[in-house]
Amino acid sequence: MKPDHARPSVKKSQTIRRLLRYVGRGYAVKFVLVLICIMVSAIASVSAALFLGSLIDDYITPLLAMDNPVFDGLIHALILMGCLYLTGALCALAYNRLMVTISQGVQKKIRDDLFSHMQSLPIKYFDTHAHGDIMSIYTNDVDTLRQMLSQSIPQVINSMMMIVVALIGMLTTDLLLTGVVILCVAAMLGVTRFLAGRSGRHFVRQQVKLGDLNGYIEEMINGQKVVKVFCHEEEAQEGFDAVNDALFESADKANKYANILMPILINIGNIQYVIIAMAGGALALSGIGSGITLGVIATFLQLSKSLSNPISQISQQLNSVVMALAGAQRIFDLMDEPAEEDHGTVTLVNVAFDQDDKLYETKEHTNLWAWKVPQEDGSYKYTKLAGDVRFDHVDFAYEEGKTILHDISLFAKPGQKLAFVGATGAGKTTITNLINRFYDIADGKIHYDGISINDIKKTDLRRSLGIVLQDTNLFTGTVRENIRYGNLDATDEEVEAAAVLANADDFIRRLPQGYDTMLTGNGANLSQGQRQLIAIARAAVADPPVMILDEATSSIDTRTEAIVQRGMDSLMCGRTVFVIAHRLSTVRNSDAIMVLDHGRIVERGDHEDLIAQHGVYYQLYTGAFELE
After folding, report:
1. Burial class of residue 134 (count of CB atoms within 10 Å of its CB; 0-12, 13-18, 19+)
2. In 3D, which of 405, 371, 366, 376 has the Cα closest to residue 388?
3. Is residue 73 very low, low, confident or very high in pLDDT (cuts 50, 70, 90)?
4. Confidence at residue 389, expressed as pLDDT on a 0 to 100 scale
5. How is 581-622 classified by DSSP, letter by letter?
6. pTM over 0.85
7. What letter would DSSP give residue 347?
8. Which of 102, 108, 134 is closest to 335 using CA atoms?
9. Of 279, 337, 411, 443, which sits 20 to 30 A from 453 (CA to CA)?
10. Is it the case that residue 626 has pLDDT exceeding 70?
11. Angstrom distance (rounded) from CA 329 to CA 410
12. Alpha-helix runs per DSSP H in 349-504
């Protein structure tokens, strides 16, 4: 077993390899060009520094001794030196431009992959992770990664190239002065390792705390009305202060070490500059370094800057690299979340009847659907989609060892309306979540038209179900587009017919642009009841054989509810319907009513039967005790 301290290094190396794969996907050639430009830029810069010694010793010094100096050679030398600097500058411009393209492209691909994978995650992931923290991955973490790719990585590579080329230049010029420079560099590296190591750990924590802060802010923004209603401003502020203080502490410790690193390195570089000048002068005067001339000293002074500055630049970029790698790790952690498993093989297809009244598959839209069930011999059996749903001794737990539903058995025949009533937490919504396979059962069976729902592909299963949730979600777009969300192939006439059925047509036509009115902020410009009506219309346009109404009329006043209920009755006609309601008046006409208590069905029957039993339902209906 590997020691604990080795694991972060292994994980970091895996993260770097995954990032390099993104760079290699479509940008390998450009990245090679970046490396070539960086190498040419570094060589040009160091060559110009080496040329400085020749300029002094071979041109300037002899000219000083002439009575009638001729400057032709010096001018040519200066032009050559200028060409070297120009070449380095053009290469630097080229690789920086190329890195912008690469970093933006990688950023786009990562966000594409993130969003694509997020669509495959189970509902459980979103129930157990703060939405603001997930958003922080898309924004802060991806952006720090972009900054590293566009700025830090080319700077680090360029600096490393400069260090290598500068050392080679020094070694070929004078070994004694090179030794002096290496001692100063060793001191710089020691300081960098000490301070950067301490700041790096805190930069990783900073990214995590930043995600926590974004999650808290997102939660408070969504719940601002609740905060105001219950005068919870001070408590909300205290909670924010606690999260913000945690971010401050990690950021303060990280930047405390990071910010003192550069001044220390700059001053060590300045001290190195002075030491080289003094050592070079002393060696030249003492005769120990016979080959040391004024040009050599000037070259070394220039090369020392070419060596110390890159080390300072690398140390400055280390914190950005650490932050980006921490962000990249959070990105890849999300990408590594296991996708929703789906081993179903049964699909939903359009069918028609042949001359012998047998079903056959067709690509045409026939408004007749069937389950396409694979057989062992490779053929397919077609079972008409009818909406027969049955639970057989079902147990379920969100967490292992904490069972929520106990031995649930029920059936809803095609066209029947089944209602669930009971106190909050009794398990009503959980049952409907199991029909959708948002969660999988622990024990028992759920059959849909005689087929185990585990054998049906989840997308096809959910396509056969219409659902109206208690919490309505509307998207940025027109009213028409929000209704059409239930069936993207629906015509304008079908959208409007669905709105009429849900009794939403009247208020929609009174909006400024009618069906083309733009909705933003989850439909903030509509009342809660109007938003619910649009959600009902969205379910109506889907035209599924099974409907799930989870408190579908909870946000509608009693008068509107009576009008909507007539539209709902038309919508439910001929369909299997599961209704969850706190208002018992909305379930009176159900074919069967299931009374749940702590995850068990304690009573079942129609309204009259349950009233006659004088049990829990009777007490709920007569107000002997509150439903909640």
Report:
1. buried
2. 371
3. confident
4. 92
5. -SSGGGGTT-SEEEEEETTEEEEEE-HHHHHHHTSHHHHHHH
6. no
7. E
8. 134
9. 337
10. no
11. 46
12. 428-435, 458-463, 479-484, 492-501
> Would you state the structure tokens that stand for residue 478, as one six-digit string?
């027109």
Contact 462, 482 (CB under 8 A): no
Tell me the Cα Rg of the chain. Answer: 36
Look up residue 185 and give its two tokens.
């560099």
Largest CA distance in the chain: 128
Residues 6+ apart with CB under 8 A from 380: 361, 372, 373, 374
* H or E element at residue 340: none
Residue 390, classified by CB atoms within 10 Å of its CB into exposed (0-12), middle (13-18) or buried (19+), is middle
Q: What is the pLDDT of residues 221-245, one digit of tens each?
A: 777 766 776 677 788 888 888 888 8
Give the distance from CA 133 to its chain's centroid. Answer: 9
Each residue's pLDDT tens digit, 589-610: 788 999 888 889 998 888 888 8
Phi, psi (deg, nearest 5) at residue 381? -110, 135
Nearest to 609 by CA among 628, 594, 626: 594
Structure-derived torsion over alpha carbons of residues 469, 471, 477, 481, reported in degrees to the nearest 10:
10
Burial per residue of 349-363, b for 16 or more beta-carbon CB atoms within 10 angstroms, e otherwise: bebeeeeeeebeeee
Can you name the residues that pair with 403 across neighbouring β-strands? 397
Q: How confident is the model at residue 1 (pLDDT cuts 50, 70, 90)?
A: very low
Q: What percent of the chain has pLDDT over 90?
A: 10
